[in-house]
User: Which sequence fits this backbone?
């Protein structure tokens, strides 16, 4: 502080690195200095902090508001604080920040930085290539929509997809079989065909339904049958090579089955794939056109009706459906005749 004359006190202070001189009356107090700072430097009293050498830090409201300004003459004064404009900018920033406040915790919600995940185009391309091209329920059996959903579940199964990608299996048609056509009874008991692989993977048929058509078999058992039939894409007879591949596929499917779960099965239709197990699936395939309704010869399906050779898959499926319905009518007629005593 320095006095210019008996009526004026000059207050020299530093603010934002610049020196400022304020003229006040000789009897001015620290409170008058604060008011002068607010008017001339636009720093509101609430933002003012005065660091005075050998006195310390003073800020409004002052402990001694009547402290004579002349008593701190010739002392270094540093003004700290924000101007009204700066304070307004801070308030605006705070209001913007408050829009991101977490109501439950009262803290700013921090967006979690998620790791950038690259799109696995190769995997998607392979899954679209190595899969079941067409799902075909039997439309003449009850509730074909449910059968279609079951086939779709098999197609979308993570384990099946992973194994088909690894072995590059593409199966044009995955369909269900009619239980009545693949169940045989004699004095030794009842045998049931669980699955069929036609023409080295051209068509795979699976036994989805119970014998009485009133329900569906256990999903994991059917999936295991599908593993068995996929192994027939490579090996026809049930030899050592076949069983080795079958076990590999089963382990791959189980390993990739992140959902796990499923029901346990304790029926005569359940089988465990393995060397020496007698799985009644007609075993194998034959080259050339896909043939339906042919009988197994020596563990390998024969070429059957020559009239079917050269037919496309849609025509073959339509013909097979006709044959199934014909056999069902014949069986029904036979039961009626037997009931009438003929």
Assistant:
């Amino acid at each position: 502080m320095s006095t210019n004359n008996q009526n004026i006190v000059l207050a020299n202070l530093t603010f934002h690195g610049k020196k400022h001189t304020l003229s006040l009356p000789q009897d001015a107090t620290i409170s008058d200095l604060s008011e002068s700072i607010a008017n001339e430097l636009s720093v509101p009293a609430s933002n003012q902090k005065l660091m005075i050498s050998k006195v310390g830090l003073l800020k409004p409201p002052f402990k001694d508001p009547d402290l004579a300004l002349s008593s701190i003459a010739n002392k270094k004064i540093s003004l700290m604080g924000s101007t009204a404009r700066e304070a307004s900018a801070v308030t605006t920033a705070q209001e913007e920040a408050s829009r991101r406040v977490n109501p439950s915790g009262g803290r700013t919600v921090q967006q979690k930085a998620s790791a950038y995940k690259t799109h696995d185009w190769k995997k998607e391309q392979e899954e679209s290539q190595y899969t079941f091209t067409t799902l075909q329920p039997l439309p003449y059996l009850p509730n074909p929509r449910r059968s279609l959903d079951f086939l779709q579940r098999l197609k979308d199964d993570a384990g099946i997809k992973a194994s088909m990608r690894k072995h590059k299996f593409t199966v044009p048609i995955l369909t269900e079989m009619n239980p009545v056509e693949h169940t045989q009874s004699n004095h030794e008991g009842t045998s049931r065909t669980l699955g069929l692989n036609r023409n080295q993977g051209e068509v795979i048929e699976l036994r989805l339904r119970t014998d009485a058509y009133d329900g569906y078999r256990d999903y994991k058992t059917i999936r295991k049958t599908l593993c068995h039939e996929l192994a027939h894409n490579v090996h026809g007879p049930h030899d050592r090579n076949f069983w080795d591949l079958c076990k590999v596929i089963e382990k791959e499917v189980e390993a990739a089955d992140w959902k796990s779960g499923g029901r346990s099965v304790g029926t005569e239709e359940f089988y465990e794939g393995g060397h020496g197990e007698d799985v009644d699936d007609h075993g194998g395939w034959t080259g050339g056109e896909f043939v339906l309704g042919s009988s197994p010869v020596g563990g390998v399906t024969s070429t059957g009706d020559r009239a079917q050779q050269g037919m496309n898959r849609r025509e073959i499926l339509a013909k097979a459906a006709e044959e199934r319905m014909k056999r069902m009518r014949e069986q029904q007629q036979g039961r009626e005749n037997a009931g009438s005593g003929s």
